[in-house]
Structure to design on (830 residues):
């Protein structure tokens, strides 16, 4: 691309050895660069993916045969709760946030996110929130009521450890992180677009991230409130969810699923965005029906708010309510189906290269369709009455979340790894990974539908031998190990390719969007001068003829002074302060009691300490901003 | 608040300032927060017929309703003074700014004082978080709002402090405007809460 002109920030040379390492650590702790933040998001999510995967393997091992007693029931509850919570909130969501962070600003031609320091705060709140929740394993027991935490099981008389308090407070931190991140994405995509990057020229990944962000901003408050009410119930003597005291356990379900259903689209839409970038690139065609993909994303977002009670068909709502929510659920299949046809249309007649990224993208389509069909079954109340709370539901959700979201995320990794690191991932290992995952996913999750129909309930820790469920369960456990092997192989591939992978160059796939127009990895300032965009596929058109639909497809603007915000430690300190305050809140009940009897326990002090850290960090943060850094 | 972004475009592709756009988005999330609380309140409204003290006895008391109505007026007035304070900040009229931003903070504090007094009265009547569903949902809903008012007062005082220490910089009116947006939002939410809790029969 254009030669590096203008005043570029200088890069300094790093010392070797321990000092160099420490400098790197400090660099990352204080960075406000969206790309580094993105890399940390991705790395942390991958660690959580492995931890959540380990929990899954323990669960599957225990279920491998009837009457096994490898894991005690109580621990089993903690494992499946933390497995679900981890995969949803600490793996899939932050993977999406990681790709969004890294690529959304580059794709719209911006220098960084709209609020770089706030972006760092999102990252650290996520990390500390996750660590906080995992600390529960060491501090008396992890949460144990499922990722959806139905009341009244979560009340203090049924869930006696502090596990649920950890869950509520940790998830509150993850929620804050997601909300701040979502606001940042929305403002960046809507307000920091490069000249000519009209809304209807934004890459589809950007589109889907924006829709996702709106879903988060509007749905998270509902679960936030639900959790605060639970915290009050557990610690301050209210009875919001306790029926015998006039409370209403269904209130939890409504508030939770009003968030929970949009949340499933939060997990899948970015993956849809990823494959909407990958498919056209490797089919060497423009996406078929760009506007349909974009607007059906919006339609899914809207409809996603109208279907939450399809998770509650069996609780005894009036038939007319069930019918209405069923109708909504069927409707949401329409924009989803539209997208499927767009992707197939993109492949149709294309000049297809079966790279690993492409294989995962195609795998996504196939497996997501299976999961979606399962969803349509469940969306019909009479069918749902039969199979709710059985393994059919588990099969459905894993097809859409593993076969869908995670496979889409993997497609993103193979696609963007060369841009992020300058090196290609090994295609041979990648294809093996693909085979291990598709086989593993099929063996693990397809039989679950059958077992569900045969009546195997979900969330049981073992079963009798005469149920006829043994063979399928064994196959499933075997499949799960294949998925685990695939994940490890991927890790190996990453580590190996980082050292000795083939050098990628700036544009290994002949890409169409702006990230391929800068170096690999991109410099801190992304583009030396502002790109001026005249096409939906600016870089592609630039390479192949140069004309967009309004003038040149891609030009670089005049040299200018580049101002990047300086690093700051305060976002991290602030997030740390929040965690300290949360730790004090954990023992809120003891706190309330200790005040009542006039004996100050240590907890208020801890909360206060956290608040002081937060205020101190906020003050310094503000001072840096005022000093124009 | 974040410093102006490191982007190449200062105004923003939508023609709005990024900080303001962020604040609007954040308020979308706040709307849903209060919607969830109000939904919770409505779930239990009128259902508590066993454990006293009952909502209709406490809230329909003519003088307590009158006090809350006046308090609502106090908050509404504070929105007006906020507008005047912003006008002062934008015109560089220091006197006007400081008078009205402090007036806004004072009205906000007055509102909180009256609310605390109301709480004290209700607690004397035997209402508490754990007394019944009305107590729980009433205190959580209005308490959450009160917390927002308290944060608002803090921000107002911060704006005054910043105007005093750093003077009226170029970014200053925007900061005041954004704090003002938040303040108007908190007022507006109270009007809705007031209607639902105190006026709905
Ligand atoms: C056509 C689209 C879909 C429909 C009609 C649908 C319908 C349903 C229904 C009715 C249930 C409740 C089953 C029960 O508990 O009895 C359910 C569960 C679930 N669905 Fe879907 N679904 C669809 C797509 C998706 C997608 C795209 C995702 C995620 C990316 C997803 C994730 C889940 C999850 C996680 C659960 C389980 C929640 C739990 O733990 O109970 N679904 N789905
Ligand atoms: Cu759903």
């Amino acid at each position: 691309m254009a030669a590096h002109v203008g005043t570029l920030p200088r890069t300094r040379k790093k010392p070797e050895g321990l000092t160099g390492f420490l400098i790197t650590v400090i660099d990352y702790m204080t960075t406000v660069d969206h790309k580094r933040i993105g890399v940390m998001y991705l790395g942390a999510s991958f660690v959580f993916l492995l931890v959540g995967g380990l929990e899954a393997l323990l669960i599957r091992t225990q279920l491998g045969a009837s009457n096994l007693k490898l894991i005690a029931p109580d621990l089993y509850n903690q494992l499946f709760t933390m497995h679900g919570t981890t995969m949803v909130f600490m793996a899939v969501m932050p993977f999406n946030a990681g790709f969004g962070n890294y690529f959304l600003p580059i794709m719209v031609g911006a220098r960084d996110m709209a609020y770089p320091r706030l972006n760092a705060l999102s990252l650290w709140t996520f990390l500390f929130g996750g660590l906080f929740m995992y600390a529960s394993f060491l501090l008396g027991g992890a949460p144990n009521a499922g990722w959806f935490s139905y009341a009244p099981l979560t009340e203090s008389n049924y869930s006696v450890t502090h596990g649920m308090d950890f869950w509520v407070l940790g998830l509150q931190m993850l929620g804050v992180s997601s909300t701040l991140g979502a606001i940042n994405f929305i403002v960046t995509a809507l307000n920091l677009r490069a000249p000519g990057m009209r809304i209807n020229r934004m890459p589809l990944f950007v589109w889907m991230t924006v829709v996702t962000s709106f879903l988060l901003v509007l749905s998270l408050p509902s679960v936030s409130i639900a959790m605060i009410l639970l915290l009050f119930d557990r610690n301050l003597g209210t009875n919001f969810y306790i029926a015998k005291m006039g409370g209403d356990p269904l209130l939890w379900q409504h508030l939770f699923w009003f968030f929970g259903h949009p949340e499933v689209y939060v997990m899948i839409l970015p993956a849809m965005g990823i494959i909407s970038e990958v498919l056209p690139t490797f089919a060497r065609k423009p996406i078929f029906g760009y506007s349909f993909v974009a607007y059906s994303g919006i339609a899914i977002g809207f409809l996603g708010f109208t279907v939450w009670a399809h998770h509650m068909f069996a609780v005894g709502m009036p038939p007319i309510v069930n019918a209405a929510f069923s109708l909504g659920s069927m409707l949401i299949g329409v924009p989803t189906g539209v997208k499927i046809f767009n992707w197939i249309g993109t492949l149709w007649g294309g000049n297809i290269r079966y790279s690993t990224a492409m294989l995962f993208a195609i795998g996504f389509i196939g497996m997501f369709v299976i999961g979606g069909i399962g969803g349509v079954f469940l969306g019909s109340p009479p069918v749902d009455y039969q199979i709710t709370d059985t393994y059919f539901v588990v099969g459905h959700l894993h097809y859409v979340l593993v076969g869908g979201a995670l496979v889409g995320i993997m497609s993103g990794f193979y696609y963007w790894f060369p841009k992020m690191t300058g090196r290609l991932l090994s295609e041979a290992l990648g294809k093996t990974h693909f085979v291990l995952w598709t086989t593993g996913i099929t063996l693990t999750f397809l039989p679950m539908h059958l077992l569900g129909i045969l009546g195997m309930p979900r969330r049981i820790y073992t079963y009798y031998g005469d149920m006829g469920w043994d063979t399928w369960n064994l196959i499933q456990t075997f499949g799960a190990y294949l998925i685990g092997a695939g994940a490890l192989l991927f890790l190996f591939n990453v580590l190996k390719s980082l050292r000795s992978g083939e050098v990628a160059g700036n544009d290994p796939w002949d890409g169409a969007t702006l990230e391929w127009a800068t170096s690999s990895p991109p410099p801190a300032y992304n583009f030396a001068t502002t790109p001026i965009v005249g096409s939906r596929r600016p870089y592609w058109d630039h390479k192949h003829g140069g004309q967009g639909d309004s003038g040149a497809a891609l030009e670089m603007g005049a040299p200018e002074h580049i101002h990047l915000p300086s690093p700051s430690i305060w976002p991290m300190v602030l997030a740390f302060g929040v965690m300290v305050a949360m730790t004090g809140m954990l023992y809120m009940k003891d706190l309330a009691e200790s005040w009542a009897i006039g004996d100050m326990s240590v907890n208020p002090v801890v909360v206060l300490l956290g608040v002081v850290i937060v205020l101190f960090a906020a003050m310094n943060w503000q001072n840096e901003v005022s000093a124009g850094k | 608040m974040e410093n102006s972004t490191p982007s190449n475009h200062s105004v923003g592709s939508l023609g709005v300032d990024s900080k303001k756009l962020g604040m609007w988005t954040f308020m979308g999330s706040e709307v849903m927060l209060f919607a969830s609380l109000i939904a919770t309140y409505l779930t239990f409204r009128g259902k508590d017929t066993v454990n006293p003290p009952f909502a209709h006895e406490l809230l329909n008391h003519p003088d307590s309703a009158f006090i809350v109505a006046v308090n609502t007026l106090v908050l509404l007035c504070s929105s007006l003074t906020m507008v005047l304070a912003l006008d002062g900040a934008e015109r560089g009229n220091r006197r006007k700014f400081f008078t009205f931003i402090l007036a806004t903070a004072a009205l906000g504090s007055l509102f909180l004082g009256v609310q605390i007094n109301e709480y004290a009265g209700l607690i004397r009547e035997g209402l508490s978080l754990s007394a019944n569903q009305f107590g729980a949902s009433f205190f959580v809903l209005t308490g959450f709002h009160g917390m927002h008012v308290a944060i608002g007062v803090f921000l107002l005082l911060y704006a005054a402090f910043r105007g005093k220490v750093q003077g009226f910089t170029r970014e200053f009116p925007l900061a005041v405007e954004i704090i003002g947006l938040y303040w108007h939002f908190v007022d507006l939410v109270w009007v809705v809460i007031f209607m639902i809790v105190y006026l709905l029969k």
